[in-house]
Automatic annotation (TrEMBL):
<feature type="binding site">
    <location>
        <begin position="52"/>
        <end position="59"/>
    </location>
    <ligand>
        <name>GTP</name>
    </ligand>
</feature>
<keyword id="KW-0378">Hydrolase</keyword>
<keyword id="KW-0547">Nucleotide-binding</keyword>
<protein>
    <submittedName>
        <fullName>Root hair defective 3 GTP-binding protein</fullName>
    </submittedName>
</protein>
<keyword id="KW-0472">Membrane</keyword>
<comment type="similarity">
    <text>Belongs to the TRAFAC class dynamin-like GTPase superfamily. GB1/RHD3 GTPase family. RHD3 subfamily.</text>
</comment>
<keyword id="KW-0342">GTP-binding</keyword>
<dbReference type="GO" id="GO:0003924">
    <property type="term" value="F:GTPase activity"/>
</dbReference>
<keyword id="KW-0812">Transmembrane</keyword>
<keyword id="KW-0256">Endoplasmic reticulum</keyword>
<feature type="topological domain" description="Cytoplasmic">
    <location>
        <begin position="1"/>
        <end position="671"/>
    </location>
</feature>
<keyword id="KW-1133">Transmembrane helix</keyword>
<dbReference type="GO" id="GO:0005789">
    <property type="term" value="C:endoplasmic reticulum membrane"/>
</dbReference>
<feature type="domain" description="GB1/RHD3-type G">
    <location>
        <begin position="42"/>
        <end position="262"/>
    </location>
</feature>
<dbReference type="GO" id="GO:0005525">
    <property type="term" value="F:GTP binding"/>
</dbReference>
<dbReference type="GO" id="GO:0016320">
    <property type="term" value="P:endoplasmic reticulum membrane fusion"/>
</dbReference>
């Protein structure tokens, strides 16, 4: 759209020589079209060209009609001014006006070549060709203009002869402007003469096969007008020109010249490239195949437009690349990506959709694919990061609950809640990041995440189960200590019954507390069996450890000594014995010693009076570590030799008491 800054306003009156004297195409047209403010006009612009002999007032006419600034011949010098082809923007109009170097009937040859080339060039792009001629040239069938028209018709047949779908439109308006009209011959007569000449020329053309029947009216619309003498009737000339101008400016008029049907459908931003290509083909005398030219133009421009659309897109996509590579989950990435993509496609569509539809669609698919693949790596990165985030949130949730308050939770519930939170979060993130018109999916990643959280939960579960079993074991150890102490200190014949009774009761309590807890851990039958088996063995080992502690050498000797002393040094009332010479010291000594020695076998093996108690503990060594555990041998507390050793050591102690007792009677006699 035209920008109303001074430079462009100034630019709008600039002209450019698109083909110079050496028949080279300018490299400035593209920039110039932009400076004219027409680059973004799409199809909302028109192209008109003028043809005619030299110095017939063509440039003068164009400047009057379009407010252009083409050079006009200086009256006093009378030399050719317009060389090659010039272009200017119509003042206040979206029109590109081409002033084409005139041909002179007197100088043929070289000129004819340029005439042909410029005709091809103009027909391929212009909607309206103004054919400028003097009134006195009308009817001169052999005149210079007729040669020009023959050329125009011929090249037109070559260009637009075969109608191709999707190709440029083939209709062109020929506007005959008859200059220096005296008024003696009415326009209608001039028009008839000219039309008859045109028909004659058309008929005389050798037409390519398949086009023999083609009519002039299949390709051209004809329009005629006259202008009075500019010098002799200056005022009238200006009036008529002003009226003629209305045919170019007032859309509603019936004789409006820029009808849609004449438009060559080259988007304004492609005009420069298109014209340059056409000129190159014309120059190298190649067959000018316009549909191909349009396709080539479309390819070139659609690529350019696509690249431009990608530049901004890449800039946007890059902004999130770093954070994602750094492991960040970008909030609202899906919406961002969709926005970038839609913007890029909209930029492309805006400019490219005017070009050859096949090419436009093909390149759009390419662009879409490029964009999708760039976004796809962001998407995959985001999923990966989301996966990590959800997994670590899952771990933290388990940690927070489990490491806190001991046993006051249901493990299954904790895991179930954390799992569903984790999955919900991932699904929401995955859905957000996945944009339509892609084949992306987050479901497989969710499956992977599910597996991982299941593994993590399993590790936690095993740990927690272990912790729980350890806790139960610790409680058991604490509780078993006292009843064993009490029982072994009394050393009654049923002391093992008491010990095993307490053991059985505490073990049952431990087992039921395990089973209650195991439910919330979703433990399997097999795990329960293993855990219970190991719990039983560990409970038993704890019991044995306690027994070992109480039956260590010094401990057991202490017990024996105490037992003996209670019988030998104190009477039945617990009063210390004072031996008199008549007392049966030997008898008492032997009895106390024998009774005490009888304890040694009682301590040496766990053997309850009620033998059913002995089988409280089923020997079930399931765990590898406890494999060597042999229940039967664990009932034995002293070996035979240890037994003899303890008995011998006790005897020595007892003997010492006997000697001491004896001495006490001797000393009492001595007093
Ligand atoms: P071009 O070579 O066809 O572009 O012709 P120019 O526009 O340069 O004009 C050539 C000469 O013809 C100039 O001296 C103009 O003043 C003069 N001229 C322009 N228009 C007319 C016209 O309508 N009638 C006559 N007789 N001379 C004209
Ligand atoms: Mg001129």
């Amino acid at each position: 759209m035209p920008n109303h800054n001074s430079r462009v306003l100034q630019g709008s009156s600039e002209r450019v020589q698109i083909i110079n004297d050496d028949k080279n195409f300018t490299s400035d047209l593209s920039t110039q079209i932009e400076r004219w403010g027409l680059r973004d006009a799409g199809f909302n612009y028109n192209i008109v060209a003028v043809f005619g002999s030299q110095s017939t007032g063509k440039s003068t006419l164009l400047n009057r009609l379009f407010g252009t600034t083409f050079d006009v011949m200086d009256e006093t010098k009378r030399q050719q001014t317009t060389k090659g082809i010039w272009m200017c923007r119509g003042k206040g109009m979206s029109v590109m006006v081409m002033d084409v170097e005139g041909t002179d009937g007197r100088e043929r040859g070289e000129d004819q070549d340029f005439e042909r080339k410029s005709a091809l060039f103009s027909l391929a792009s212009s909607e309206v060709l103004i054919i400028n001629l003097w009134e006195h040239q009308v009817g001169l069938y052999q005149g210079a203009n007729m040669g020009l028209l023959k050329t125009v018709f011929e090249v037109n047949l070559g260009l637009f002869g075969k109608k191709v779908q999707d190709g440029p439109q083939s209709r062109t308006l020929l506007l005959f402007v008859i200059r220096d009209h005296l008024g003696v011959t009415p326009l209608s007569n001039l028009q008839n003469t000219l039309t008859a000449d045109l028909m004659r020329i058309w008929d005389s053309l050798s037409k390519p096969p398949g086009l023999v029947e083609a009519q002039l009216s299949d390709y051209f619309d004809l329009m005629f007008t006259t202008l009075p003498h500019k010098i002799l009737t200056g005022e009238k000339f200006e009036e008529e020109v002003a009226r003629l101008r209305e045919r170019f400016t007032i859309k509603g008029r019936e004789d409006y010249v820029f009808k849609d049907v004449y438009h060559k459908r080259i988007p304004a931003d492609g005009v420069a490239v298109y014209m340059e290509n056409i000129w190159e083909q014309v120059q190298t005398n190649k067959d000018l195949d316009l549909p191909t030219q349009q396709e080539l133009l479309a390819q070139f421009r659609c690529d350019e437009i696509s690249t431009a659309a990608l530049v901004e897109f890449n800039e946007q996509a890059k902004s999130q690349k770093r954070p994602i590579e750094a492991g960040k989950v970008v909030e609202g990435l899906g919406a961002l990506m969709k926005n970038w993509r839609d913007q890029a496609l909209a930029r492309y569509d805006r400019d490219a959709s005017r070009y050859h539809q096949g090419v436009y669609s093909r390149k759009r698919l390419d662009l879409h694919a490029t964009i999708t693949s760039t976004l796809s790596s962001l998407f995959l990165g985001q999923l990966k990061n989301l996966h990590k985030l959800c997994l670590s949130a899952f771990k933290s949730a388990l940690h927070a609950t489990l490491s806190g308050n001991g046993t006051d939770y249901n493990f299954g519930d904790v895991v179930g809640k954390a799992t569903s939170e984790c999955e919900t979060r991932f699904q929401a993130g995955g859905k957000e990041a996945c944009i339509e018109e892609t084949e992306w999916s987050w479901e497989e990643e969710l499956e992977l995440l599910r597996e991982e959280i299941a593994n993590v939960a399993e590790v936690f579960r095993k740990d927690e189960t272990k912790k729980m079993v350890n806790l139960i074991e610790r409680n058991f150890k604490r509780q078993i200590s006292e009843p064993v102490d009490v029982a072994l200190n009394k050393a009654t014949p049923d002391m093992w019954d008491k010990v095993l009774g307490a053991f059985k009761q505490l073990l049952e309590r431990a087992e039921s507390s395990y089973l209650k807890k195991a439910k919330s851990f979703n433990c399997t039958e097999e795990e329960n069996e293993t855990a219970l088996g190991s719990l039983r063995i560990r409970a038993w080992l704890a019991l044995r450890a306690k027994i070992d502690e109480l039956t260590a050498d010094t401990a057991i000797l202490g017990k024996l000594r105490m037992h003996f002393e209670e019988r030998f040094r104190y009477d039945e009332n617990g009063v210390p014995q004072v031996w008199k010479p008549d007392d049966d010291i030997e008898g008492a000594f032997r009895q106390a010693k024998d009774e005490t020695l009888a304890l040694v076998p009682l301590f040496s093996k766990i053997s309850p009076v009620d033998s059913s108690l002995q089988y409280t503990l089923p020997p079930s060594p399931v765990n590898a570590t406890e494999e060597e555990f042999d229940f039967a041998s664990s009932l034995v507390i002293f070996s035979e030799s240890k037994y003899l050793d303890l008995a011998a050591r006790f005897r020595r102690d007892a003997d010492a008491y006997f000697v001491e007792a004896k001495r006490s009677t001797v000393s009492s006699i001595a007093q």
